[in-house]
Amino acid sequence: MAKKVFLSLILVLMVALACFSGRGTDPVMPLDPTLGQSYFFLVEGKFREYDVREIRHHGVNISDTFNYQLREEVKEPFINDRGDTSHIVFRYVRTTATASWSLDSTWSARVNQDYALTVENNKPFVKMLYPTIKGTTWDGNAFNTSEIDQYEIVPFDAFFSIPNSLISFEKAMEIEHNVEDDSVTVRDNRKEVFADSVGLVYKRYEVYKYCSLPACLGQKIIQSGRFYTETLTAHGSVGGS
């Protein structure tokens, strides 16, 4: 697709045209071009730990529920085949707080002047655009072959309290992903929240297909899909340094 061929140009233009996006108002372009980069917080030697809850729906009243813990560690930088500096991110999981961590997957991430990007299971996603402006929208799938997935910065530099937790942050940024809910056939409600100098602190995905048979149409009975949350429980430096 043309949008893939001219991707780099499009992302730059998105930043330049951000003042025209939003919900009825024109955001003011900040003077600092790096504004928002500290929210992604890609720093070697840092870690974050999360409680994860996942429900996978396989049919009406058929589902599997998983509760576990996830730990991310930012490792050393490397130069990729395009000459960009990226960081390796090790992801560990365990079933309980007393169990040993086990390596689950290896991702990578990078931050440049215009955007932050993660490569998750070999699939790249544009997580942020810079400078950060409330109301900015972009295609999170711009670097992969999936359909357009619109991301939007809702609040920026706002107070955020993690649901069902005593943890809160004075400066946080919430990014919505392609919100869709027709109350009949589908629900796609995803968001990620990043805190200044911490990184991702909360993630919630609800992606469902509802039963469309005559007996259950319009009743929001889940036929298939996934519910997923990541809730930050700890963060800091590996080794406590």
Describe the fold and architecture.
- With 241 residues, the protein is mainly beta.
- Helix content is 7%, strand content 53%.
- It has helices at 2-5, 7-16, 37-40, and strands spanning 46-59, 62-79, 85-94, 102-111, 115-120, 123-129, 137-139, 150-153, 158-161, 168-181, 186-195, 199-210, 222-237.
- Strands 1, 2, 3, 4, 5, 6, 7, 8, 9, 10, 11, 12 and 13 form a 13-stranded antiparallel sheet that branches.
Q: What is this entry, summarized?
A:
The protein is mostly beta strands. 7% of the residues lie in helices and 53% in strands.
Labels describing this entry:
13-stranded antiparallel beta sheet; globular; 13 strands; mainly beta
SSE diagram, text form:
Elements: H1 2-5, H2 7-16, H3 37-40, E1 46-59, E2 62-79, E3 85-94, E4 102-111, E5 115-120, E6 123-129, E7 137-139, E8 150-153, E9 158-161, E10 168-181, E11 186-195, E12 199-210, E13 222-237
Antiparallel strand pairs: 1-2, 1-13, 2-3, 3-4, 4-5, 5-6, 7-8, 8-10, 9-10, 10-11, 11-12, 12-13
Termini gap: 47 Å
Order of helices and strands: HHHEEEEEEEEEEEEE
For the largest beta-sheet, the strand count, sense and barrel status come to:
13 strands, antiparallel
**Count of individual helical segments:** 3
Our Rg estimate from Cα atoms comes to 19 Å
Q: Can you tell me the overall shape?
A: globular
